Amino acid sequence: MSDGRRDGFSMVQRVRFGDLDAMQHMNNVEFLRYFETARIAWFREVIPDHVPTRRRSFGFIFAECHIAYRAPAFFDDDIRTWITPAEMRRSSLRLDFEMRVESDDRLVADGWGVLVGYDYEAGRAQPLPDALRERLQPMLAG
């Protein structure tokens, strides 16, 4: 998964005491939370009018996630999460992510998540709007 890419969107989050597990490293659940936080920040940059808490006719549902844990992260580590749109289909978008510790560039996790276009009013999946496709197409990896 890791390809050393350093372009595109990223954000930094600091590992808090409450993020730790009994072994004193970042709990595996927190990796998903960090990815979610970075994913929402990415959307807000790419689609400035995106408000994740507002229901409207088109939105996204987070349908699938894969995380490969590569190394532990510890209290006070600054974790940079890179988000890269990787694949777009008729009604879904796959986002790849990579998490590295800022101080030593240690890869702590990588993976991907799939988002499905969703019509909240009708309660069903729907194709991605053309305007969104046009905005995302130049950002796709590869």
Number of helices: 2
Extract low-pLDDT stretches. 1-5
> What is the helix fraction of residues, given as a range?
10-25%
Number of strands: 6
User: What separation lies between the terminal Cα atoms?
Assistant: 13 Å
The Rg value, from CA coordinates, equals 16 Å
Name the CATH superfamily classification. Hotdog Thioesterase
Number of domains: 1
Structural class: alpha+beta
Q: State the order of secondary-structure elements, H for helix, E for strand.
A: EHEEEEEH
What is the residue-mean pLDDT, rounded to a whole number?
91
Task: Explain this structure.
With 142 residues, the chain is of the alpha+beta class. The chain has one domain: Roll (Thiol Ester Dehydrase, Chain A). It is 18% helix and 37% strand. It contains two helices and six strands. Strands 1, 2, 3, 4, 5 and 6 form a six-stranded antiparallel sheet that branches. The longest helix is centred in the N-terminal third of the chain and has 19 residues. It is elongated and about 45 Å long. The two termini are 13 Å apart.
Give a quick set of tags describing it:
Thiol Ester Dehydrase, Chain A, six-stranded antiparallel sheet, 18% helix, 142 residues, alpha+beta
Q: Short description, anyone?
A:
The chain contains 2 helices and 6 strands, in the order βαβββββα. It has 142 residues and is of the alpha+beta class. It is elongated and about 45 Å long.
